[in-house]
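User: tokens in, sequence out, please.
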């Protein structure tokens, strides 16, 4: 699954720095009696060339944080940045351009067009904006996710794991600065899920991308370089070099504290 770094991939590694940053980020839905604080003054950084997992119980704000950081949802207060770009200062057209140029997305649902084959689905976002793919980079991505022999197959001719690999390749094809993945293995069996997680990890270690992934699965989180934990819309812990056991231990500790509070 993993490939040794070559001169090409080494050259493509991202430099150190911060790919995305939230500062005192607050997201509120509704008003009055229906007011819900989904995120409460969250401050967190996502390092360039790193794989970060976001975990927390249902309703903790983990998907909301990712959507705000990706410019898919407006923030109520505070700051959200991709690189040096402050998202709250952008209009809809500028946000669309930012997402098209600097952000990749992988979701639990594959979102592939059934009438297009794999390579057409991979290049579709660039085709829509009239941008030609970098052929060398595209071949590198396709090889990394193991799709070289499946590019002319339509989604119905691919397994779930293969379809998600197409979605991962599509997210990486435009060379985004950061890829946001929301429960990318939620619809996959354990074997296919492990393959997709390996490809996401390879995109960080070999291709220099930055990946931020929302997950509820301790095993999936262990593929990351770091796990941040949310509860009740607040950042409550930060775990480097996670293992499934360490993630489970933290989650049990949080559950125990929640029951006694």
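Assistant: Sequence out:
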């Amino acid at each position: 699954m993993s490939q040794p770094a070559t001169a090409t991939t080494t050259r493509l590694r991202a430099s150190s720095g911060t790919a995305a940053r939230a500062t005192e980020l607050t997201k509120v839905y509704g008003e009055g009696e229906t007011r819900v604080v989904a995120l409460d003054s969250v401050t967190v950084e996502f390092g360039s060339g790193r794989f970060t997992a976001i975990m927390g119980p249902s309703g903790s704000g983990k998907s909301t944080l990712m959507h705000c950081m990706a410019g898919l949802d407006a923030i109520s207060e505070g700051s959200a940045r991709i690189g040096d770009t402050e998202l709250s200062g952008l209009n809809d057209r500028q946000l669309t351009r930012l997402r098209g140029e600097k952000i990749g997305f992988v979701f639990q649902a594959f979102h592939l067009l059934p009438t297009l084959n794999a390579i057409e689905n991979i290049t579709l976002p660039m085709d829509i904006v009239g941008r030609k793919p970098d052929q060398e980079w595209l071949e590198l991505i396709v090889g990394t996710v193991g799709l070289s022999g499946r590019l002319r197959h339509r989604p119905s001719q691919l397994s779930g794991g293969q379809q998600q690999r197409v979605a991962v390749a599509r997210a990486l094809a435009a060379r985004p600065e950061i890829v946001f993945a929301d429960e990318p293995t939620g619809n996959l069996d354990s074997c296919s899920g492990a393959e997709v997680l390996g490809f996401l990890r390879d995109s960080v270690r070999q291709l220099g991308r930055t990946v931020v992934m929302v997950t509820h699965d301790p095993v999936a989180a262990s593929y990351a370089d770091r796990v941040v934990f949310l509860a009740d819309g607040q950042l409550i812990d930060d775990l480097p070099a996670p293992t499934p056991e360490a993630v489970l231990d933290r989650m049990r500790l949080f559950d125990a504290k929640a029951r006694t509070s």
